[in-house]
Specification:
The protein is mainly alpha-helical. It is built from seven helices and two strands; from the N terminus they run H-H-H-H-H-H-E-E-H. The protein has a two-stranded antiparallel ribbon. Helix 1 runs parallel beside helix 7. The radius of gyration is 17 Å and the shape is elongated.
């Protein structure tokens, strides 16, 4: 990973974590569990999803970089960079989460859930800080974008968190959102 790429990934990971932590600080149980509609996730559901997604993606990255590189795919992945970078801003496009990363109430204690979010993000930051793997030559598919390289997947982690921060802001702006 180039120095500027590492710096960008680390900035995305740290800033999106800070944004999320600020948004959930001091929430009441009713605020954590409020849903705009029955089919929409609560703030707790969003945070659980982020933990599950982060652990899933970092696991796939670790497995993928152990496999043979596929440098012939580089030309197909590079045009997808704007899609990855724009992920947080494109709230009009909805994605259906894989079953494995859908919230199920795994952390009913919100303090434990926030601590788990921080642990997951700390592992991602440590990996991004230290890896010497050729992330640009290892690929796995996104559900909508197709093959992304492992560097792009690290960027997805940060942008995905920022996207859900916007969703949490939307929940908090709902007229029926409970007062503190």
């Amino acid at each position: 990973m180039e120095t500027h790429e590492r710096r960008l990934v680390l900035e995305q990971l740290t800033s999106s974590e800070a944004q999320l932590l600020k948004l959930v600080d001091g929430l009441t149980p009713k605020q954590w569990s409020f849903q705009e509609t029955p089919e929409r996730w609560s703030i707790a559901g969003n945070i659980e999803h982020l933990i599950l997604f982060e652990d899933f993606i970092t696991g796939v990255i670790a497995k993928t970089i152990e496999e043979s590189p596929e440098p012939d795919k580089k030309t197909l992945a590079s045009p997808k960079e704007p899609l990855v970078l724009g992920l947080a801003n494109s709230r009009s496009t909805r994605f259906t989460a894989r079953e494995v990363v859908r919230p199920s109430g795994k952390w009913p204690d919100t303090a434990e859930m926030v601590a788990e979010l921080q642990k997951s993000r700390a592992r991602s930051i440590a990996f991004a800080s230290q890896t010497q793997a050729d992330l640009r030559s290892h690929f796995f598919p996104h559900i909508s974008f197709g093959d992304l390289d492992c560097y792009q997947w690290l960027m997805v982690l940060g942008r995905h968190s920022a996207r859900h921060a916007l969703q949490i802001e939307q929940i908090k702006a709902d007229p029926s959102y409970p007062a503190a």
